[in-house]
Design a protein that fits this description.
Three copies of one chain form a homotrimer. Chain A is an alpha+beta fold. In chain A, the strands form two sheets. In chain A, strands 8, 9, 10, 11, 12, 13, 14 and 15 form an eight-stranded antiparallel sheet that branches. Chain A has a seven-stranded mixed sheet with strand order 2-1-3-5-4-6-7. Chain A is elongated and about 60 Å long.
Chain lengths: ~280, ~280, ~280
């Protein structure tokens, strides 16, 4: 039975001008059979939480046992550590210890083993730069793992999972008729993904039926609403008129807010992290 | 004789933040040998005609017998149907029944068989979302077809080709000295591709010789010209000075209008669908 | 011993709307086993020097013996020649003779053989367009070379290396305390890469120690400074506060200027080719 080629996925904030290609070249030089899957390279520069969000929702759809490289790394060249994580599903995550990888690890069966990438035999043999660990450390280590010429245990010294840096992700609270959460991600359609689950929303407002009237507010740090609008719950975009807004459960199982065939985030001017309140109307 | 890996192409309006990668992961999970070719993911959001244009000009250059997934799908989750089309050349097209796929099918030898994608055994086994059929239906069906573990006949119930939704594409009319057509697409160089063929242009203005003086007008819905300029026919960009405009036959065999090393569409402010008139000067 | 699939890399200024995919389709039609690596497609339109920069820094990280296609080609359809270059490392470069390929050839062991692409048997069999040589000439020739069904000698008539068009790249001069160079590239982070090497900088200002105070000036063509700021040398971004600037040696071994977690080029308004002076403070 043919197994297919070893898969390495790659997510960065490198943009589209060659740095990601260099990583691909390094991987293929070490593992010529690798099937490289680009997850995204247009993550907002230095936006660790955005990268973590995309890794969390994307990687569960990759074949189990893949290697994943994530590089959103404002601390490159400082004391932040390069790490490798093995997950319950058998995948391996490679990247900086800045919180980028942990939400995805949780979505892949949880962390089973963590190591510091300090085995320099697996790095690129040339002198290591202090600004491009994607090329010099993360890609070659992933290449060796994918090629099967180094087991996970050889990538470096064991670390305790509890030592890893965790992102401070937004919290969600519910009370009668009111859900308080925050914007977890704004996608390329301008759809506003919140940190709340359908259970959270149901706990606040009751049954999630098509057409339930709601009020959505985006809040300033001091808690006053910078934007407030009447909307409704809908199970599909087609439920509302073109350009009208709705609260819905997105394809990743999160509560989201969008304009049907419009760009809600651009209309309202919303960025990741903004507090949002959804209430019964 | 080695046949190469089965090819699946992918065109979407998903942008660059991970949704296309999820589709790739789903395909590779089902067909580990697939060679995935990204056609484009930066199609204007919801612009079915733009997606249809790019599919029509791109897919004929893919190896015959490929599977093609197209997702520009403003009606996702509504009554619009998910479909598969088999073409004369042996390719298969998978996507929404909204007109996106038919121009490409015509360019691949015409529609030979059409089916509704209602065999849920070929869908992603988890619960199907109402907003991401690219992930839940189109990619897994294409993966099963490419892997050869489902023949085309198994994807679902037969449909009559005449039942499919067709786009209302721009018409072209010619009279003595005048060609009336419309903008079919604005490419990333700002070159303005029209819906007219060289035969149309020749019928209007006579022989297409380098340097023939022409007038190009872009028209408002009421027929008055919002922009008018004197230009010339040229067989190559180098025919005119840098920054000067020309009417030419583009690499897809369509009549087009461009600035040599400039961006004509940005200069004039033109979008897809604008009526355009080309006349002898 | 498995050798891996033949690699073809692809760099263009085509953007993201399908033209690069057409090239990929043509290559895979001729060489079904090809592993295509996209280097970049968002090179500034017609910016030959930008494309040459990215090829020079990227291609050395691709496996030796790869085929590389580069298309930034404002002169397509004019007298500029389509060429193939064999390099000391065994790689082949395919593209227009406009200076795009030579810096990369130098980085791959130098030019060992050059040929005009005039063997039409290796071109796409349909009529050749005058605006899309990437599809009609460069991609099919690279496909045949990668497939091994045409040796390099068959791509066309030999050319003397000295006949090739060379870019006029920026010069660097040093005197006591002053380095005069120019902006070679602005990357997607807004980091300003200069044409100077660390040796150049050391010759001007002495030892490159963390914290050495410097002055950076960007100059107008008449030599007066349009922007002047006090900064420092740093070996890592983390050396300076977030938002503060530094002069550093980038991951390609060039002297560069950046804001830590900011976009220096956007802040200052800098484009490729701008003269820059770095002086001891």
């Amino acid at each position: 039975m043919e197994r297919g080629r070893p898969i390495i996925t790659l997510l960065t904030d490198f943009g589209l001008d060659g740095a990601a290609a260099i990583c691909r070249g390094v991987m293929l030089g070490i593992c010529p059979d690798a099937q490289i899957v680009d997850v995204a390279h247009s993550i907002r520069k230095y936006a660790i939480a955005d990268g973590a969000f995309i890794l969390r929702i994307s990687l569960p759809y990759m074949p189990p046992g893949s290697s994943h490289v994530g590089v959103v790394d404002p601390g490159v060249g400082t004391e932040r550590r390069p790490i490798g994580i093995r997950t319950g599903r058998g995948d391996v995550l490679i990247g900086p210890d800045n919180g980028l990888l942990l939400p995805a690890a949780d979505a892949l069966g949880g962390v089973t083993e963590t190591r510091l990438l300090d085995n320099r035999d697996l790095w690129l043999p040339s002198e290591t730069s202090s600004t491009f660990h994607g090329r010099d450390i993360f890609s070659p280590v992933a290449g060796h793992l994918a090629a099967g010429d180094a087991p996970f245990e050889e990538i470096g010294t064991p670390l305790a999972a509890g030592e890893l840096v965790r992102l401070d992700l937004p919290h969600t609270r519910t009370r009668r008729g009111v859900l308080d959460t925050a914007v977890a991600y704004v996608d390329s359609f301008g759809n506003i993904r919140t940190a709340a689950t359908p259970d959270d929303l149901q706990a606040a407002i009751g049954a999630l039926d098509d057409g339930v009237p709601l009020v959505v507010e985006f809040l300033a740090p001091d808690g006053h609403a910078t934007h407030r609008e009447a909307t409704q719950f809908g199970r599909t975009f087609g439920r509302v008129a073109r350009g009208a807004s709705l609260v819905y459960v997105d394809s990743d199982g999160d509560v989201a807010f969008a304009d049907n065939q419009g760009n809600a985030a651009a209309r309202i001017g919303i960025v990741t992290g903004t507090p949002v309140r959804i209430s019964s109307a």
